[in-house]
Design goal:
Helix content is about 50%, strand content about 10%. The chain has a two-stranded antiparallel sheet. It is mainly alpha-helical and about 100 residues long. It is flat. The chain has one domain (about 5-100): P-loop containing nucleotide triphosphate hydrolases (Rossmann fold), CATH 3.40.50.300.
């Protein structure tokens, strides 16, 4: 089981000043890593379960780091879903099939 949100939040190098974040640079790095992940998954004849968070349904974060994180996780989730054969959205513990 893979979790893109934990992978990137734990592995990200955080600048001392969040205003120094270069969203385009971070987006390229994250999307390249997710693309590498989907390529790797595609080479194996087994099932993978990827668990991620949906952070775009709440309030808009009041800081740049929070907004960049929200946007990048949403784009990473879209890319993963595009490559997945099945996608489920969990609402209060109830799985809702949205693809497959």
């Amino acid at each position: 089981i893979l979790s893109p949100s934990l992978y990137h939040s734990n592995g990200a190098q955080r600048p001392k000043n969040p205003e120094e974040i270069k969203p385009a640079k971070v987006e390229k790095q994250v999307m390249d890593e997710v693309e590498d992940l989907t390529d790797c998954i595609g080479k194996h004849e087994c099932n993978f379960i990827v668990v991620s968070n949906e952070v775009g349904l709440g309030l808009v974060p009041d800081n740049k780091l929070g907004r960049v994180y929200r946007d990048l996780l949403g784009k990473a989730n879209q890319l993963l879903a595009r490559h997945a054969s099945e996608v489920y959205f969990m609402f209060s513990g109830i799985p809702v099939k949205i693809k497959g």
